[in-house]
Amino acid sequence: MKAEHYVGGVFRSDGPGFPLVDPVTGTEMGTVPEATREVVDDAVTAARAALKGGWGAAGAEERAAALRRVADGIDARFEEFVEAEVADTGRPRSFAETVDVPRAAGNFRAYADLLYGRPERAYVTQIPGWSAGTGEALNYTVRRPLGVVAIISPWNLPLLLSTWKIAPALACGNAVVVKPSEETPSTATLLARVIDEAGVPDGAFNLVHGHGAGAAGEFLTRHAGVDAIAFTGESATGAAIMRNAAEHVTPVSFELGGKNPALVFADADLDAAVDGTVRSSFTHSGQICLCTERVYVERPVFEEFVERLGARARELGGYGPMISAEHRDKVLSYYRLAREEGATVVAGGGAPRFGDERDGGFYVEPTVLTGLPETARTVREEIFGPVCHVAPFDTEDEALALANDSPYGLASTVWTTDLSRAHRVAPRVETGIVWVNCWNLRDLRTPFGGVKASGIGREGGEYSLDFFSEPVNVCIQI
Q1: Could you say which protein family the record assigns here (predicted)?
Q2: What pLDDT, in 10s, does the model give residues 106-120?
Q3: Is the same domain home to 229 and 296?
C-alpha cells in the first residue's frame, strides 16, 4: 500500500519522502511523503469547510449510515488491511486477523449504534426561579460537535487505536485530520481509501503523514484552526502536545504511557497467573501501553513464580520485532542498564540470532529480571519492550504501596482467588483500569484511560462521545 495524504477528498503525495522500513528484516519497503506546513493547512481548511457543508449538515441517521459503510468497506478489504498491518508492525498475522482489523470495523459499527439520540440528546429540567417574581424556567441541554479534531495515533496498534478515535469523532459530527505514526502509515492510507469509497463527504476525514516535533505533528497540534486534540502515545510526547495546545486553549484527550504493575497473591491460581503474565508482559513484544513491566509476587510463591515465568520467556525466543532499529536499541540499552543496576537476568537480556533474514530485523529477547530496588531506573521508567521485573512482597498493604509508587497509572492486574481481597484491593490500585484474574479483557463501552502521567480523560462508549461533543445549556423563562 503506497502511503499518500488524503486532503479534501483528494489523494496527494506532497512533500519530501522518507523511508518505510520492514521491522522483520530491516530492509526498506518504500517511501512516505512528509506533510509540509502547507499540506497541514490545506487539511485543516478542508475539514473546516466540511463542517459548513455536506458533513456539517448531516443528521445522526446519515452519519450512522456512513460509519456502517466504512465498517463494511474494512470487512471487504480485510486481507489488505491484515497484510498492511503485518508489514508495517511485524506483528503475527493472527493478531491482525483477530484483533486489529475486526476491532477497527467494530469501532465504526459500535459508534453508529451509539449515535442514535446521543449527540443530539436533550436533558430537560424545569427549574423554579432563583428569586421571588422571576417565575420558572425551562432548561435543556443539547450537544454539538467540537469542530475540527486532530487525531494523532501511535505505531503499536495503528489501525485499532486510530479508529478508536476517528469513529466517535465523526459520529458526533466533527471533521478530523489524522496523523498516524511515521512508522506505520499503510493502514491509515487504506482506511482513507475505504472512507473515500464509502462516500463520506469531502473534508470530513483528512489524512497527513509525517513526523512529530518540528514537522506535521507539531504543525497540526499548534494549528489555530484545530478545536480539539486526541492523542495516544508516550507521556513525553503528550506533554509536548499539551504545551502546543495551550497556545489556543485547545481541549485534549490523552492516552499515554504506563509502567503497569501486576499483584500476584499466594492464593492465586498460579497456572493462570503465570499464563496471564506471559500474555501481559510479552504480547506484541511488550509494545502495548497496557503491558505489565512490574510484577509483585507474595513471598511464599515468589521463587516458583519466577522460575516458571523465566522458563516460559525462554520458550518464546524471538517473539517479534521492535518497530524500528531506534526502538530496539532503546530496549537493549535498558537491558544493559538493568545489569549495571544489579539485576539478576532470569531469562533473555539480549538480541536473538536466527541465522536467516530476521537477523537484519529489530528483535530482542523476552526478558525477566529480579533483584532491583524500586529506585532503579529499570523499575521506574517505561521501557515498552518484552521485559518485566519481578519482586516479592509480604503484605497486602505493601503490595499496594509498591504498585502505586509510580508516576504512571494506566493499567494493572490482580491475581487472587479471594473474592473479598479482589474487591478490597482493586479500587485501591491507582490505575484507570484494573483487571482481576485476567488481562486486556475489553468491553468497548467501558471507560479506558489512565491517571497521573498515563493520561487525561477517558475513551470508550459514551465516554468518547462526551469528549467529542460540547454540551450547551438553553434556558427559556416561562
Answers
A1: Belongs to the aldehyde dehydrogenase family.
A2: 999 999 998 875 656
A3: no
